[in-house]
Each structure stands twice: as C-alpha cells, then as structure tokens.
C-alpha cells in the first residue's frame, strides 16, 4: 500500500519511519517532507500544500491512506476535502480541530462539559485585558487564541511581563490574526504530562505517556518553544493517574464532541498539569488540547511502539479502534532537540549539518529524526528553528539520556543550541 503523510517536521519523519515498518506499506509520500525523509528508502518528498493539491496528489498516486501530522492543514480543512472526495484519511475535521485552532473554543468546550481546566477570560480589547491582569496579578498565562506554531503562550511570572505579552499580541499584532484575540488564564502549578490518544469518533486507544520540555533553557528557564526534548514513558503518569486522565479528560472530550454534533477522529493530545498530592486526589487540569501528536513527543513514542501503526490507523478510520491493542518496548525512549541559532526568535538557516552518518544505528536504538532540514546539493542543511531530535532507547531514563547525548555530541552545525538536562524531572524522581 502507498501512504501519504502530510507535514514537514520531526513528528512526520517519525510517523513515516514507523509506518514503513509495516510489511503492508510499499512506499510513503511525504508532503512536503524534509531533509530526513528525502534520504529514506521507499519515501518520496512531494511539493503539495493546499487541501486541493493534496487531494489531487492522493488521487494521482493512488494513495491508499493519508495521515495528517501538523495542525495547520487540519485547521484548513484538509480532512473535510479528502472525505468529500471519498479518500481515506486519518485526522479530525476542521470543526473538530477547533479544539486546537481556537483556545477560546477549547476553554468554552471544557467549561460546558465539565473538563478540569484553569479559570480564564477572553479578550480582544487590550484595555480590558490589561485591567484584568492588574486585577488577577501574577503568575498568569497569556495565550494567543489562534495557531502560533508553539509560540503563542507566555507564562508571565510578573504583571509587567503579562502586560508586555498582551501589548505584543493585541497592541502590536506580533502574531498576526492568531493573536487578535487572547485567552488569559490562571497559572496551574505542578508537573505537566503529554497524554496522547487515537480516537475513531467513539472508541479511544491511548498511546504511551510522555513528557516534554517547552522552555528553551536548562532548568525550565527562558521563553516557551515548540518543545526542546521529550521522553516516554512519563513516570508522573502512574496507573491511577492514567485511569483518572482517561475518565476525567479524554472520555468526556470525545463524548462531548459527539454531543455537540462533531465526531472526533484522529490523534488527540491533552497537555495535563498534575498538581501535588496523592494520585487519587491530586488536582489535574488541561492546559491545552492539540488535535495531532506532539512534536517532539512523537519521536520517543514511535521509538517505543512495537505494534503495526498502519493497523491502528486503518481501524481508527473504519471505526473499529476497540479491536486494536498496542505493544510497547518496556524501555525508555528520550529525544533531545537541536535548534538553530536565534530560536525561538529570528533563526538563521542554510548551515550544513555534520556528523549525521556517524551516529546511524542499524538496530534502531538511536535515530536522528529531522524537523527543520532540507537536502540541498547532496548536503543536509538547517531550514527552520527546531532542526533535529536525537532520540535513543535505554534500559532506564539515565541510560537513554546518556546514549542520546553521546550521539548528539557527534553532530554539529553553526549556532546549534540544545538543552543539557532533558528528563531532569524523571531522574530526580
């Protein structure tokens, strides 16, 4: 079977890598792909972007199934276009993807269906937003309502920082239309986990737990990013908390969407803040929903998955996800992101990446997943903010971390930056 994977990041490289493990997959088209997918056997990068271009590509190439990676095509209605054309595709519709494409929609949804989340207000008027900040104080969280490529959240530790964020979004239009409306919410404290599931509109299949590091610098300092590293499993998600998150967050979300007349089919990611206390009673609250797998969480999760991903995706499309169970490598997988100079601000690109061949692992226990790369004249170059995710398996968190960092130290490009403390919480625990 020929597959199509939509997207160009590390998530899509990892999904392509895992889908190719299926004996039923002959070839994968990746639209538009990156420098990593460009160098894989039985993979072709294709230049298609709009929903209609992708539909035409799938028809022309006789694609048997399409998997959507990032949020932008979902918000643009690519799933709706494929379904209208009678083409099988895995991902939520534009209406369902509002859980991610509009923070205000998600907060109203959670409030309506009793899903735990932080108290909030939504603003388009900067004067009222500033007044609300003065009333609430800090710490406080400022979120752009729309899609902002992982850069639309400011966790303000001071009132002035909150005012600056509102001024940037509502006053200076720093995020364009995505920041024309902002959600201001209470700052939840604790430990954040990434809880990702597959859904077919009715049935839910949880994936392995994971935890990522959103701040740029060691010790969870610096600005928020799209993610600087991740590992799976997340020790904070005990069996008790796993069951609670399913019952208090995931199941009400899928049921709530159905009650609102929207069938949710696709990956669903809940960023959950887990407070202090006993697992049976400690507070949990949803920080955000993503209508796709996380990046970089996908990379370690795909490293641990031992089942055929194609089987699960086909069952989700057919509405028979209750007939699927997944097997996981019991070891820990950990990924460290290497980012371009300047990230998450203005980044430099076009730097040649050295050392990739030297760290290749034929046993698939260490894989370098590409994100912001391009193949130019036979050389892999940096092309965006987050460049690579160096991902390794190990018998413990510490072992996986040592293997990943050992490999990372053999890779270089001008201005590379990365965190040196990925999984510090798990190791401390």
From TrEMBL:
Listed cofactors: Mn(2+); Mg(2+)
Broadest EC class assigned to this enzyme: ligase
Every ATP-grasp domain range: 107-318
Coiled-coil spans in chain: none
The entry's keywords: ATP-binding, Ligase, Magnesium, Manganese, Metal-binding, Nucleotide-binding, Purine biosynthesis
Lineage top rank: taxon: Bacteria
Catalytic activity: 5-phospho-beta-D-ribosylamine + glycine + ATP = N(1)-(5-phospho-beta-D-ribosyl)glycinamide + ADP + phosphate + H(+)
UniProt GO BP: 'de novo' IMP biosynthetic process; purine nucleobase biosynthetic process
GO MF assignments: ATP binding; metal ion binding; phosphoribosylamine-glycine ligase activity
Signal peptide positions (record): none
Record-linked InterPro entries: ATP-grasp, ATP_grasp_subdomain_1, PreATP-grasp_dom_sf, PRibGlycinamid_synth_ATP-grasp, PRibGlycinamide_synth, PRibGlycinamide_synth_C-dom, PRibGlycinamide_synth_C_sf, PRibGlycinamide_synth_N
Record-listed E.C. numbers: 6.3.4.13
Pathway linked to the protein: Purine metabolism; IMP biosynthesis via de novo pathway; N(1)-(5-phospho-D-ribosyl)glycinamide from 5-phospho-alpha-D-ribose 1-diphosphate: step 2/2
Protein family per UniProt: Belongs to the GARS family.
NCBIfam families: purD
This protein's name: Phosphoribosylamine--glycine ligase
Name of the gene this protein is made from: purD
